Amino acid sequence: MRRRNPWFLRFIALALLLSVTVCGPTPRAGAVSQEEIDALKERILLLDEAKETYSAEIEALSDDIYTVLERKKILDARIAATQGQIAAIEELILGYEEEQRSLEAGIEESRRSLAEAEKKAENTYELYCQRVRALEEEGAISYWNILFGSQNFADLLTRLDFVDEVLTYNEDVIVSYNDICAEITSHQKELETSLADLQEVINRNRIAREELGALSIELGEERAAASELFLEIMADQDRYETFLQLLDQEIAATDQEIALQEAALAAQREEAAAAARRAAQSTYRPSTTTDTGSGSGTTAAGTAGSTETGTGSAESTGTTTDTQSTSGSGFAWPVDSTRINSGFGHRDEEETGGVGSTNHQGIDIGGVGYGTSVGASKSGTVIRAGDYGDGYGNCVVIDHGDGTSTLYAHMDSLDVSVGDTVDQLEEIGVTGATGAATGPHLHFEIRVDGDRVNPEDYLP
User: Fold this and answer.
1) The whole model's pTM is what?
2) Which residue has the higher pLDDT, 408 or 41?
3) What domains sit in the chain, N to C, each tagged with a CATH number?
């Protein structure tokens, strides 16, 4: 039985943790909440702990040629953790920037409200001063004069109402002024708080950007260390040849597993087709008076045949995009690049790009860098997805249901799982340099009836 890498389950757990972050930050509709900030910070801490664990595991492994793939896999996991931290910090920064814009808008509104209140207070204070001056000029006796100057009782009541209205108005002016002064104090406190909050957000944003810069440098160093791992092996011809033999053994074991998975999927499809045929036959009822039974029988058979072969037909005609066309055999370029760094078949050692077999069983597509979208060359079912420690790194195999399958290797991260059905050019991951690779590219293979063929003969 094939030996499995002991780090596999831990790597899968990390992949689940990173699934919401590695692909980058999500645009926000509003300011980030404190709960979201706390969750992102917790995720960053968890990833930092995972990175320390990976570093310890690498140190624990001997510098042996037979552990090189395990060491590279752990390095890839650490790189993925760093990318997860970068994505989380980028999301924090987006939240901080949105919060900063919200605070700045609130501060502007507070300043406008404060200016309006101060203007209102100025006008009310002026009115208050006018009333005070009027009282001083008229004196208290003027009210008695108004009352004693009444012609009759009805006139007295009218004059009393007038005096009451004047006094009430004067009181209202004083109350209004006091209320406006309280409003000004409230606006001033609100403005001071908002300005302090804004400064805090600006500081948090600055710290996050500093952390982002440090992590970006760390990511570059980690990728360089991952590449150096294979470059050191190349420097020693004996070790390099041993490594290639080990790699070939791992790939041969992978081929056997892929063949078993393809056979199992084909058996499932055949069983489904047989069930459809049985269902069609069970509903067939020949007529004793007309020829319609024959027609129904033909339709039933046709339906069963469509069920059996429809998948392949749909895949052959798959959809295309403005930048991707489909060949006569139904395949499309999986990335937005047609530059081939290394072709199919025999290649000299200097052509291997630092690592890999001299009998190349696929093509290496370059010009992609890290993070370029990888689409399914043809629609089908995912039968393999993950890093199985065989040198392919993060790898996806898609069975197309017509005797063909495709393999996509060395990806940075994956967007699909085993059992998923994908359409042509649907994203399955992004390019990277995981596994036995010294730089970002996509290793791409096409198999026909289990045998590898030159992808260039099948691509448009």
Assistant:
1) 0.59
2) 408
3) 1-235 (no CATH), 242-457 (2.70.70.10)
